[in-house]
Amino acid sequence: xxxxxTQTQWVRTHxxxxxxxGEFTSTESGTPRLMAVIMTVNGPELAPRDTLIPLxxxxxxxxxxxxxEDLIEAxxxxxxxxxMIRAAVERALTRRVDA
Length: 99
What we know:
Layout: H1 3-6, E1 10-12, E2 17-26, E3 33-40, E4 43-48, E5 53-54, H2 57-77, H3 82-98
Antiparallel strand pairs: 1-2, 1-5, 2-3, 3-4
């Protein structure tokens, strides 16, 4: 496996999207088939390599921003102000950078 390529290869199927973190050949159901291990926000998923649709950086960022929007909307529903949300995001980013 070429880890240099797969570390940054973002893909999707019709049901999942994420980053390829590994590949292997499955021989369980007859003809060997190249499979990909895809790390999603919900954990690892498996998919046949030939069914994957490559994603560009703009798509990946847009998709992640939609997830953030959902979280922000939920926070606003329970009463968090935009200032509180900004402060929480900044704190989380600071913790991740310092980790």
